[in-house]
Request: fold
Amino acid sequence: MILLRWCIYTPDSERSFLLDVFLQNLSILQLHPREAFATEEIRPPATSALRAEPTEEPNLCENQCRPSGSEALPRGIVQDKSNFQMESLGGNPGRKKAVRPSKSLLAIPVGIKQKAVVDKLVAKFPASNFVVMLFHYDGVVDGWRDLKWSDRAIHVAVRDQTKWWFAKRFLHPDVVAEYEYIFLWDEDIEVDSFDPLEYLRIVRREGLEISQPALDRRSQIHHRLTARARNVDVHRRFYKTSGHGRCNGNSTGPPCTGWVEMMVPVFSRAAWRCAWHMIQNDLIYAWGMDFKLGYCAQGDRRRNVGVVDSQYVLHRGIPTLGDGGKPQVSASAADRLAVRQRSYTELKLFNRRWKEAVAEDGCWTDPYPDPATTG
Reply:
């Protein structure tokens, strides 16, 4: 009875096999009943035993990685990245577009007073390789319309804001994910000795995730690491050979190695995704963040952060943030002092937040446990 009941719930291909087994055992029982009970035990084949308890198939729809907020949408319709590519109003959106070459992004905070310098700077960056984005901190946009590259640039105008305020709000990593490198530069930069394509060739070759062009020695230089070294393409650290300077053979961190200044940084796509998260929403001068950028180097900051000497720029160091973005009014000493005081306050706040975050995050391991020699 047990064997016959089993056959009812088995596939046809196995049912005939089981029936043959049953008949064979039945003939044994008829011919040798005592021996059969002594030596034979009727059991279903092992392959059928596996089917006795059907297993539950996994749910392929569970644990799918979907961007937050898109769970109510069919998966294929979700576009979680964007860019600054301009589209024709009358073009056919269904037409297959040619594959665009990989581009990088040049983003600059600008005021109309520095128009001539910015024009010369942007003209160095080929349109086929770079998208240009201007952050107008004085609110003046129409004054740039006569420049031949202005129509292809992205213009964002918000008065009295800094480069890092703009970057936090308009350069989200998902928006700039298609760009290979992010150039986040100040406006007062002279580029007579700079070729952006050659610069990127060197950066790729050297594997630099965070970099900057070296500073011409006539520039306003805050840390000696960023000054141009002659007869080399790239350097990654600075030694002070005499005196009691902060950088020596035992220096393993910024500003002696793994360091760039904040006026002309260049980030890889991956490094910018990390750096963007580090920018504090309410701290607009980013003081203190430069000492931590090495954590975003996608590996060893002593190797992946560097200064490109053969492509260098001149930093003019023209104060622009203390005048409230007013084109015709010079900044007063009081305005400059207020900017400086807030910068120092932000430095203290950022360092305090970093220490608190480290203390609270029990899962985070510091890849640079030894404190940098910072004097």
In short: Residues 1-11, 31-40, 324-329 have pLDDT under 50 and may be disordered. The first helix runs from residue 2 to 8. DSSP finds ten helices and nine strands in the chain. The domain at 103-318 is CATH 3.90.550.10 (Spore Coat Polysaccharide Biosynthesis Protein SpsA; Chain A).
